[in-house]
Fold these 2 entries.
Entry 1:
Amino acid sequence: MVRSKTFQPEWSTFYGGNLSLLTVTCQNTGSAMMPNRTVRSTLGLLGSALFLGVTLFAPSAVGSPPAPQKGSDIFRARCAVCHGPNGEGGVAYPRALTGKKSVAELSRFIQQEMPPGPKHCSKEEANLLAPYLFNSFYSPLAQERFRPAQVSLQRLTVRQFRNAVADLVSVPHQAVPNDPPTGLYGEYFNGRDTNAKTKVFKRIDPEINFDFGTSAPAADKFDPHIFTIAWQGDVLAPDTGDYEFTIRSDQSVRLWVNGWKQPLIDGHIRSSNDNEFTASIYLVGGRAYPIRLEFIKAGQGVDDSKQRKAKPPGKAFVSLLWRRPQHATERIPSHCFFTQTDVPTFIVDTKFPPDDRSTGYERGSSVSKEWDDATTAAAISTANYIVSNLADVTGVPQDAPDRKERLRKYCERFVQRAIRRPNNSEVQRIYVDKQFDSAANPEIAVKRSVILTLISPRFLYREIVAPGTHDPYAIASQLSFGLWDTLPDAEITRAAAAGELASPENLKNQASRMAADPKAWNKLREFLFHWLKLDDVPDIVKNPVHYPGFDVASVSDLRTSLEIFLEKTAWNDRSDYRDLMLSNTTFLNGRLAKIYGVNLPTDAPFQPIALDSAERSGVLTNPYLLSRFAYLDASSPIHRGVLIVRNFLGRMLQPPPAAFAPLAPGLHPDFTTRERVAFQTKPDFCNACHGVINPLGFTLERFDAIGRLRDKDNGKPIDCTGSYVSKNGMFTKFTGANDLAKFLATDEEAHAAFVEKLFQHLIKQPVLAYGPTTLNELNAKFVENRYSIRRLMADIVLSTITKSSGKQASRKVTQDESN
Amino acid sequence: MNPIKSRREFIRDLGLSAAVLPFVANLPSLAGLAKGHRKQRLVIMFSPDGIVPNTFWPDAEGTDFAFKEILKPLEPFKNRTLVLKGVADRVRGDGDNHMRGIGCLLTGVELFPGNVQGGSDTPAGWSSGISIDQELKNYLQANPLTRTRFGSLELGVMVPEYADTWTRMSYAGPNKPNTPVDDPYQLFAKLYGQKKDQETLESVLDDLKDDIAKVRSVVAAPDRKILDEHTTLVREMEDEIRVSRTRDVGHAVPPLEPGVRRENDKIPEISKLQIDLLVSSFVADSARVATFQFTNSVGQARMTWLGIKEGQHDLSHEPDSNAAAQEKLTKINQWYCSQVAYLAKKLAETKEPDGSGCLLDNTLIVWTNELGQGNTHTLNDIPFILVGNGVDFKMGRSLKYGQVPHNRLLMAIAHGFGHRIDRFGNPDFCGAGILPNLT
């Protein structure tokens, strides 16, 4: 890596012009393009940065053609003297230039009126001026762009809503058990049911995958004709979505997942020769759910043990599989099984419209009919669940003499937890007492109270902390939603009530505690996938002739491999950002080892491997990521480069002016991928952006379409040199992925980009809304804390509590002042 | 102008958006709009363990016959009753007679081989075919004229809480047994839950609007926009509920006696609640087909309310010579018959919503059993008592056949609904076509 200070290229000095980037249309490209809105809000941030006199951290747009900017030139020359350099008004004309005229109307007006006096602008001048004014500051949209960033009222995101309802309704317990995952408890019975008298032993089974043949689990302890096994514990759902469970067995089987009333799969009656049973359930990610699988090798109905034992024993097998979101059907791995059995969690499975992501991160910035309908439906189904399991959920027995009063107390607590603060008298009256006093019976009262609470603005909207006022409950909520995407837990609520959160020391300790909780890992994990643009990956398909064995199962394993990598690097005690960039460990199992040329037994479980350790470095060289940013048969330096520019370096790229198909390799059979990409993006209007994108993407050219190391491309040696000019003009040359990774691990711009993106993911507000220096300070702490991501998470959330955005926020008051 | 509209058009014309769709479930089916078509309905009632032939079957054939003890409760509906003797369940294969008795009763086809061992014979699994009620449901649901909210309802009384071959008679297809709903409160929630939810929701919307206004008054001006939009959405929802309610040509939600526990001694109460809800669902035209299953094959109801302490299945094994047992079995079966009669009575007393006579004019009740007689486990002379005028059979008769396969009766019922299938279940038992002499 070679760094040198150079003159800043012309394109990087300009922030707002028309930029272009080559679009390629193929299966993987859609997400590489940034929607227009993103750009607008970028400009908005930029505008506000300028407004606040801070340009250091204004994200800069990369590349611009040297197109004439006559509109602005004319404005500066002829208009700014009265209207001010940005139309904000001047001495002669103190009002800001804003309004609702169209571009054409503006142009006509300028021709007829402006500047005042004998010589108005010509038609040509007006036609250049009008669009410039309109887009720069005149139109309401332009005004919106220039509005200073501020904390705005946000509703819970869908993710937050689902988590909050789950934590509200269910008996509180840890999201995942404290003990590490090892497997399920298996209880083995020497009989045709789970009668305790016939129990032989209990052990931990890491996976459920047994072929007993005609024998028994332990030859001397069972009759091979008849035995029963019950596996039980928790199963971790890593992501939110539909989980398809499959049992393969030739015997009686039943599976319960997150509920004991009804088996999810009831295969205890064998009928016909189908040995596969499948059913789906919707689960919220980052939580463990109780699971039980019963396996019975015996006849059902009338006891036929004697007849069975008179014959030689038959065969028996059983395995338990699942298809989780973004994965292929696979055996449930032991790292998702816990021996502890928790109580079921109520899960809202109502379908919601997706949250706004136009600014690059999920946030609850708008409401819609679909959202309101979904929220209402979810509230009703939650209330129905509570009422139909009233004794279990509330702990109030059906025949309790003071049942109504106790249920009223339950609702009181329910409301308090939902709105994250003690009920004031008005809240108590509307949400609890009024419902209990008017309903015909306690069931209806509970139902009304729950529905009203779950569609209430006090539950659905995040609180806004007023500066200067100490609102411990709002602080508790900010901590828990910021770090966990869910309601405050008992401990932080207790600390808030005890007044402990007024002390910065206590606050910091609470934030550290919460940032170390598995719920924080779940939120960080979601961020990492989002940051790597791997949160919603379309099918990855490769040419089977060139990449034999690279099938859906391998792709699924590769994703698992990345999941393990992220957890091992980002969620250990160091939690070091630099490890993400530099660790040369790759996790492979038997199937992947074969594809990537490592010698492992076929059925080997995932294990750390120093795969091509001289050439690989960190997450950018992860085979899953490299496969995702590649074509059927070829690598894609453009996709890889765009990911680095936008997500690792935090630079802005505009979408290309038109959609371009990538050149087919066959058109230039002699070209390497690098040569082909360089050839196609040669024109000036491409090069503005691709001059930045390509040299970064080229550094990963040693890795082919499935992220396998190669020495040659199309028979030629590989050129993996590249370069980057940072915002401050520093020119850096790289050779290969290691160089690039070292740069990203140490570069301040890359750190700042990571900090800002994580900030947005956690807080769901623009960082500038918390003051012009916040990002800077967070960066400094990040370095100070040796790049600990976990510490950074705590610091980010704390920064939003100890700081407020001054003037803007001072107009806000907390909801609690409404009484 | 074509009076027939799609359900979507119909709902659109009411000015309802998709959002309120869950709430308009009680709208009349489209069929209600089509004049000149009668709403044919089918209820198949099941009671277990065979009957007592001597006190069940009328001696005479034809129109001039007398009911014996068990069938006496049907006396008021004698001219609307058709007694079919000599119809046999000829399906063999895996499973004991109780299993095949219930599993092949409405499907007319063999059970799959499986792992459920009966009291004799080879073990079996689920039925390998669809049952006639589901076949007819599919037929009626395929036609917009006869389509209803649920199509069919599977009801029961004290059906054991485990699923096996003895507890299931309705099959959506091979290996797809339907679970009967035997809890009146669960049935009520299924039929009227959404309407109740709507009422509950409506009752809190005023409080919600007030509170949004209160919260709105204390947030900064730029943040009021999202709350204003939210308020508009709440108002829209309120309007939609109001519209759907005023358009609901509705059927009052029937009262439901609370707190009836699911236990043996409450069978009469549960039975009555279930029958009442079934009739209500017909008034609302929520379904045209229903099965109604008392306990299960090998059922062990102890009819303490008749002064009988023993379980029914145990009694059913007693020989003919045990007169006391036979007398009890007669009383037990007479009680089941009284439930059939109660259903018939309710249907006869309830007017069709369009004013064209009563529900019984358009409903066929088929009362049947998995066995001909308990102590022999015979599958000959399976009881088939038909009540009501849902299909154009000539009622008021007692008919005797020579152990013809019951598949031919199942086909005849389908034909009665206009579903002209030429085979049902195992084709070997369908060769001679539908059961003769019915119309």
Entry 2:
Amino acid sequence: MRGKPKLAVYWTGGCGGCDVSFLELGPALLDVLSQVEIVFWPALVDTKRADLEELPPRSITATLVNGTLRTEENVEMVRLLREKSQLVVAFGACAHLGGVPGLANLASREEILRTVTGNGFRLAPPPGGDAEDSPPELLGAARPLADEVAVDYTVPGCPPMPSLIGPFFEALLSGDLPDPGHVFAQEQALCKECPRTREDRKLTKVLRPHEALPDPQECLLDQGMICMGPVTRGGCGAACPKAGMPCTGCVGPTPEAGDPALAMIAALGSLVRAGDEGPAAFAAEDRVLDTLVDPLGTFYKYSLPVYVRARRAA
Amino acid sequence: MAEDFEPKVVAFLCRWCAGAGADLAGTSRLRYPPNAIPIRVNCSGRVDMEWVMEAFRSGADGVLIGGCHPGDCHYVSGNYKTRRRVYLLRKVLAEMGIEPERVRLEWVSATEGAKFARVMREFVSELKKLGPLHLEGAERAAEPVAARGRS
Amino acid sequence: MPNPRPDARGPRIGVFVCHCGKNIAGTVEVERVVEALARHPGVVYAARHEYMCSDPGQDLIKRAIKDHRLTGVVVAACSPTMHETTFRNAAEEAGLNPYLLEIANIREGCSWVHEGPETTDKAIRIARAAVEKVKGNHPLAPTEVGHADKCLVIGGGVSGIQAALDVANAGYEVVLVERSPSIGGRMAQLSETFPTLDCSQCILTPKMVEAARHPKIRLLTYAEVESVSGYLGNYHVVIRKKPTYVDPDKCNLCGDCAKVCPVRVPDEFNRGLSPRAAIYVPFPQAVPSSYTLDEEHCLGLNPLRCGECAKVCTVGAINYDMREERIEEDVAAIVVATGYDLYGKERMTEYGAGTVPDVIDALEFERLLSAGGPTRGEVRRPSDGKVPKEVVFIQCSGSRDPELHKPYCSKICCMYTAKHALLYRHSVHDGTAYIFYIDIRAGGKEYEEFVVRAMEDERILYLRGKVAKVYRDGDKVIVWGVDTLTGKRIEVAADLVVLAQAMVPSVGTEELARKLHIACGGEGFLKEAHPKLRPLEALTAGIFLAGAAHGPKDIPEAVAQGSGAAAKAIAILSSPTLTHSPEVAEVDEDLCSGCAVCVPQCPYGAISPGEVAHVNELLCEGCGTCVAACPSGAMRMRNQTDDQVKRMIRVALGEPVEVGRG
């Protein structure tokens, strides 16, 4: 018999929430941990890059990478992990789609550095340090994991919910793995899991979540809240809408939805009503759409680096 | 600016109004620049916003959507849906740094061959002023992410 | 389905490029289009012909389909509106499913509008895009469906009556719904008709009686269509029939009930020029021939407050317990003949209408002229009952006035104003009629002659010009106008002013149109499918238009349109089965989340929500608005999927086509 599967978990440009998300498995986590051997997980065990470099190629059964790719060091590490791993899993929205840090792509690297550090900043080693002690260079843009290495599976979410992590570990530990490319979430949108009622489908106003206490039964979209549910994969059990918060799309778009912004533009544009449709309502319809604050940030909250590749230089 | 820049355009034309207007422009032998490749749809309401971006990613400098005048839609109200979708799309394009004028929505009736030809001339000349879009370098992002991983 | 697409072997597309004489070949290098397309992936055969639509051209296509085992065909030729059917039929004759043939329009959209080498380049791109579409097409077959065996006619005016009679005489059952207590419509209110001066009621009532007695016609008066669902051939209609509280089989029209009724309200049929009781018959020849108790104005039925009418009814026709009936019918076709109203005269403040009692509209004047009217046919003005000696008729009142009123011509006013003036002069021999007009539109059989006859009467003065102002001065109505032919200002101290008010669709037309899922044009008249070639059809299949609900028209036109609509309905009723285009939307149930964003996008109510959405493909007209709206890509358009269109876009914009080589 082969030994326990060897597991690595690595964190690139992210918030750390993905590392914590494993805890949400609860007692099941103990089962998982007893069945794997952790060979590399900086957040959990004291392993260094040098330890990793010593491992033979493909000796890690599965590496779970969370975080967006933002620095050259991120890229070096995920390439190294790819080489040492049989399977690489994009874990969480940042690795999957670029994630919230990906919204930084609306500004250039230079703009970001200037804003954060002021003019005249240069990357340099600490006083008296060697050149290799310099902070790693920022990449030109935040990028999803699949931009640099082949990704075998994706466990999506921000952070991934236990309902998505669980099936992944079940598959990994049983050896009954799906076809490469599988995303551990539903192909249908999460409306399928949402208990809210959809009686009168129309959007007569746009409200941000803090602007109203939503009706507990009615679809949030029908109440004017921009819920990304219709374009977003299910699997989370519609956790946010059930709690009265519109879905922000962290699990990523359904396979056929394509670009979530374009899909939402089509859906919202279709649903807007300001009285009977016709020229007399045009201005009022436009006002409804104008109240949608930050459409780009709303539609691409987790996915800008994947879908907006070519922001043209100003 | 390159004077010889010839913008590439995709024109989605509904069959009942804008498409028929384009046919009439033909029957009337009205000349207009050949920059646009027409794609016929039943209704402007069929035009997917994905198509517009696909056109830009595939090298188009502009996209024209032609539908029936308000009140004249063969399918009652498809043009109203398109109008709102395009309104929102143009806002998002502007945020992406793409000039919203590159997406043009026009109402052209079956009797407005001259208007169709005029719209084509105007649009091409406006796109010439805007210059090339150069979105060709953009990778296609429509495919699911996992499928794009290189192995 | 026949001819399954042999995916395994890959597509085998044939491309056929038409010269169309010089029409295409004059600006497009056809040979180069053929060469370029022959090299396009998936194309196994490419050819050209001088006239592809000719028999030899079609034979070329048919032979190639067989010889090269083509799985798809692109004909690069004229607009698909011209010959798509021709070529699809040819393909079918050769054994290829017709939905696997597409037209690339390289004439109207290319060769006729461009010149220079780019024209050929564009033609190639257009043809390549069509090839990409065909590659993704699936063989389809029209859906066959049975149908109901009745026709619904909405509106019991002369147009609706004619439609009902024609359908019934062809042997099919008709449900004729009229919202007022009697059929007859506007024509029943008219005195005489132009240009023959036939008595309007005398020529109409035989048709009314025939409709009422026809064994194939179910007449539902005092009734309105509440809802309509379904599709061509199978509409389900719910009709509400208000209670009349009078049994029409027992009522003998003695009128005792109306005499004892303590209520008096303005009589609608007489345009408010006389009162009626709460129990009334609109006019003596009403069909059905019965009194109606108007619940709105009755002192009270529940609890009964008066009850006088029942006490005097010797035949026991009055039944206070009568209830509203809800009637359901399944019909194959619907004729909408809901007629017109006059544009409210009170809007003509410049003409003093609404405040000056002796400024009346044309239908009020018709009632004054009618023998059965409030003045028994004597022309007497409303304010004091005097016979007016000076009458001013103002044409285009509210018509042809885009700034303030209606932009269109109401078409019949020139004619009926001439009639009014003549009839007035017949009635008041020493009276003078003045007619203010913009110009005279008398297109119609013997119409011009009729107007000339009016003009030749020396006491009918045609004045070309607009009226600036009308106001009351004592018992006179002063009319200020200009005769633009002489340039003189004109002031007439008139006894009566008659406004030829614009025609507008009858009240409730838009609401009914919504129920029927048909469209109204900008001015609220029902919209036809094509202004030239399909003037009788609404945009929704199986619904036809008749009479003035569709636009201003005179009686012969309304009757002709009623007959025309009936012929269209009969064509449906007499077909063994109906077919519906298979190029419609469908739901991928594995992808649909049931979010229902699609549901309100459908103008035909074809989508029902649920766990997953469901498209009734017989209701779907194939617009694709729901497909573009679907957030998760679960709604698809048959033979025009997003993937197909994206491939078309890519080849249309693909690498430049080398032109001018060799």
